Amino acid sequence: MATIKSLSLLGQLNKLSYVNRHFSTTKLTAAKQMTVRDSLNSAMDEEMERDDKVFIMGEEVAQYDGAYKVTRGLWKKYGDKRVIDTPITEMGFAGIATGAAMAGLRPICEFMTFNFAMQAIDHIINSAAKTFYMSAGRVNVPIVFRGPNGAASGVAAQHSQCFAAWYTHVPGLKVISPYNSEDCKGLLKAAIRDPDPVVFLENELLYGVQYPMSDEALSKDFVLPIGKAKIEKPGKHITLVAHSKAVELCLEAAKELSGKGIEAEVINLRTLRPLDVDTIAKSVSKTNHLISVEQGWPSCGIGAEILARIMESETFFHLDQPAIRLTGADVPMPYAKSLEAAAIPVAKDIVEAVKKLLKVK
Amino acid sequence: MFNRTSISLFRLVWKNSKTKFSTQSLFPSARTTWTEQLEFTGKHSYEPIPVYRVLDRLGDVIKPEDDPNLPSDVLIKMYKDMTILGIMDKVLYEAQRQGRISFYMTNTGEEASHVGSAAALDPSDVVYSQYREAGVLLWRGFALQQFIDQCYGNRDDNERGKNMPVHYGCDALNFISISSPLGTQLPQAVGSAYALKGKNRIVVCYFGDGAASEGDAHAALNFASTLNCPIIFFCRNNGYAISTPVSEQYGGDGIAARGPGYGINTIRVDGNDALAVYNATKKSRDYALSENKPVLIEAMTYRIGDHSTSDDSTAYRSKEEIRQWSTNDDPVAKLRYYITSKGIWNDEKNKEWLEEAKKEFMVAFKAGEKKHKPHWEILFEDVYKFTPEHLEKQMAYMKQHVEKFKNHYPVNEFDGK
Fold first, then answer.
1. What is the pLDDT of residues A178-189, one digit of tens each?
2. Mutate to test the interface with B, among A57, A96, A124 (most CBs of B within 10 A)
């Protein structure tokens, strides 16, 4: 099945981050705007206030307020005991956080970026994800591993990649890849309260972007369910499934398609494990067409998983055309701006793919 | 360009400012003094850390004030646990060779380090072990039947058949389930110690000379020191990491020498002397608890057995070397000489006990082998705290499948639910 890669040199990543981002909330009119960064911050703040077992650990998270300022003000408010700067060793503090969770605390382990979490992945997969099973349900590990994931800007191969598929592969983990401020707040709170280990994949490019927050989302009781996708925009002609920043691309493409009389249904996955296949299946039964969109690599990716699940299910018979994946190019991320833009899909690619699939000119 | 006058002026200024320096250097990164001697600091700069002992090889106390004078019942339990460990090792090692269980690791030669340290701890202290510390669990009250049930992964295995043999765990005894990847227990133990600060408990983390080479060991020692965690790092230096001798594992003075480098108080102890291990652990526990600080213990010992049932150690060490250690410095015999000279044990009691222990063990062994395997539905449980829908679906599917094809599966060997 075809994997469509962007060859467009027009994919201006940064520009895209700041336009067309008012699709996602329920109460548009009076909604307060909040950046993704602040929503993550308030989620942690509220949960730390609610439960004194919650603490944050990572590099630069305390006095420096976090490398991306996501933990801003928390050290001042909660002090050394609950916001802990660590020496530089991901393997060390991920292990220490895992041990603290085994002993009954609820750590939030911040990775400066998930690129550096590779050093700690043994603790995440072999210890955090498996201890509950290996101890036959006696020792649970309520921990959140969080930090920025996915394509960033101008930082090339080792700092710009999506680890969603890596973690989603592993039983015992829950994996969340939120899109906007509401997602981040509601899902991070859910992750902190969850009894199992959760990998929470943020997006660096979205940290500074403002999204509307409903009154409900501003409340301290706002928690979103893990494992449930959200229909960001209803439509009847084609289903676009995405997570994280790719949701934004889909919404943008949907807007353009709408002007051509094509109504795309955009599904924001929110959680990658467990995957909400039911919402996708229901949508495909209605639209009879499916494209998955992600910024990560194609092989064994999130899109591959979605298509396989649809293929295996009764929903397959609802498809009028083969489902396709739209992914990042199967290359390490290049540095040069023009090459970088060509390595990840943009809204125009989605529009073209939809038109091709629906045989519309 | 400098001319002569400006150079001498510069020297004058420099000289004057030099007189203002104190003899202490002021760098934030080290509190030390200045020196004008250019030389290497190395292995030759310090004497190797000595090995603390209480007993000599014949079980006689060298310095009477060092005898912990443990009550008779404690000493006898120590000795009994050490001997039963040997019986368990022999039978379960053979059981693996006969294909009854898939894997086993023996403890032979290191019994004193297990029992001596375990006896000095409080039962509420949390233990993170590596994989060769069955004696610690035995001391805490894990029953022989529980060991055997775990190795068989039968229906009474407290880990419900989910963990490989000898990867014991017991929450009631504060013994964390053993994790195979080498060294991961080290930073995790520090995390637990951090969580237990001020709760009148400490964490004890066992590891080997090989695991000490993992990056995790560095991270753990460094964090425990900077975060002031109440933990004992207990290194069993048994001379070999599978086949790698310590001479290829490190170039310095063992593991103990690293302690002061991290600012961690350290004791090197004779790991074959149960009483020395007891004293060292007791002192370390008192210090860790009262000061909220880590301690490093390096217990010097020798692994008599193979690394595991997947290993044949005669490929890399001589039978003579093994024989020397098992006859000249046997930790079990050493404690037996001691309790015998105390008058609380004798040859007759010893013979009776060994027969009785063997009998008791074999009864448990046979019972463990006969027990059914856990119900197959358990396969899907404990992945998450609450079973997610997709696993419930899989379970329902498997239920139908097994029901339909039950004549083709050994369903009678599994526990009913």
1. 999 999 999 999
2. A96
